[in-house]
Amino acid sequence: MPVVHLIDRALIRASGPEAAKFLHGVITCNVATMAVGDARYGALLFPQGKILSDFLLYREGEEGYLFDVPAERADDLLKRLTFHRLRAKVAFEKADDRAVAAAFGDAGTVAEGRAFPDPRLAALGQRVVLPKAAADGLSADLAAYEAHRIGLGIPKGGADFPYGETFPHEADMDQLGGVDFKKGCYVGQEVVSRMEHRTTARNRLVEALLPGPAAEGAEIMAGDKSVGRLSSVAGGKAIATVRLDRATDARAEGIPLMVAGMEVELKAPDWAEFPLEWERKVSELDKKLKSAKT
């Protein structure tokens, strides 16, 4: 039963009569529509629109929320949320007495835990918030969960994109429900909105299908030009940051994409709505052929 204690995650609690209003106005996801027991994927951005930290947000009560955040980002996120608080009636603290587990595959319920559906993708399973003492009795085999995540093409902050340098579109947050484009203002909103409506993301996180072993950090080459880099790798599948224009040009010129001396296949994740340029052209050709047959 795959239930893994995510020892690389930490929890921050937000509470108070103005918690919902405050959070709705500073983070990328919609907090106003959350009911008790709901989960959202979101981020707090720098004013320039780059990601300070992404997180899963759980509503645990009428005035209480939990941030499920990378442990390495917890202090920075706590500090920045407190900075933005001003006079709002909301308090923040680390929930060090609680821990996070992931239940996926054929996992059942976890004793003493409260489960929230992973809002990014149903196939990821559930996140379970439980007492720290109970979590210590679970498996801490992060490799099992990482293989599950990578197999679904889901990016991970810090591993697949660097904090402080990445826009939400570049981290595929726009594809995974991490940004609400209709809710109005939040920190960094103008930059993100401009990228959504006026430009396209030059870099994207995509899936890389590997015919053999390759190391994390290996460059994807088109001739003597780099078009991207592998990040998370599990077996024959990896997540890669790719310059879409360079990869498209290489494909148009018939130049193979190579990693560690092997030809690699790049594809948009199944959940993504941004087909790669050559996937889009194939899709359009299929539509024309079907139309001609009918």
TrEMBL record:
Highest taxon, organism lineage: Bacteria
- What is the protein name stated in its UniProt record? Folate-binding protein YgfZ
Question: Which PANTHER family does the entry mention?
Answer: TRANSFERASE CAF17, MITOCHONDRIAL-RELATED
Recorded hits in SUPFAM superfamilies, A to Z, give: Folate-binding domain
What residue stretches are annotated with the CAF17 C-terminal domain? 202-273
Question: What is the originating organism of this protein?
Answer: Xanthobacter agilis
- Keyword Transit peptide applies: yes
| Keywords from the UniProt entry | Transit peptide
Domain GCVT N-terminal residues, every copy: 12-98
Thylakoid as a keyword? no
| InterPro entries, A to Z | CAF17_C (IPR057460), GCVT_N (IPR006222), TrmE/GcvT-like (IPR027266), YgfZ/GCV_T_CS (IPR017703), YgfZ/GcvT (IPR045179)
